[in-house]
Amino acid sequence: MLYDGGDKLVSLGGAIAVALAVWPETVLGEDGSLIAGILFAGAWELYPTSRWGFDYTIPVGQDVARGAGSFEVVGLNVQAVQDETSVEVDLDADGDFEITRQLDEGGQLTEVRGVNAGARVRASAPVQVNLFTGNPFSDYEARAYTMLPVDQWTNDYLVPRSSDGDYWLYNPHESE
Hints:
By secondary structure, the protein is mainly β. 0% of the residues lie in helices and 30% in strands. It is globular.
C-alpha cells in the first residue's frame, strides 16, 4: 500500500516507527547501457503534533561552503496538521517570503532545491518541517533532519553520533 502523506497514524501510549526509502529508477546511459540511479534515502523523526510549531529557521543551506559538497542540494518539506494552514517560505534568507501556500490537514509543501542557511518557514497553524541535504555528484551522500521550531531552541543539546562526522552549529546572531 502506498501512503501519500495525508494518512493519519495514531498511537495510544507507545512509539510508532515508519520507514520509506526512495531512490531514482535505473537510467539509460548515452551509449544505451543501463546505469543505476543515485541512491538518496533518508528517515525523519515524526514528532507528536503537540511539538510542531509556527516558525522555523533552517541552519544550513546550499550557500554553506564545504569541500565534500554535502550541501549541493538542500530542500525542505512542510506538513500541516490543520485545514487552511497558511505557510510562507523564505528560501534565500533575505527576509522576503517567496512562497505562500494554503495547506489542509495532511497537506505538504516540498521544495527540492534552493534553500540557503537562515531560510525561514512561517505558518498560521502548527507545522512540521523536515530538511534534506545531499550531493548529487556522490553515489550515497544524503542526510535528513527534522527541524525544531525556533521557540523550542535551547542552549543545551544532546547529539548522538554513530560514527565520525561533522557537526554544523547555527548561530543567527552576528555578535554572540
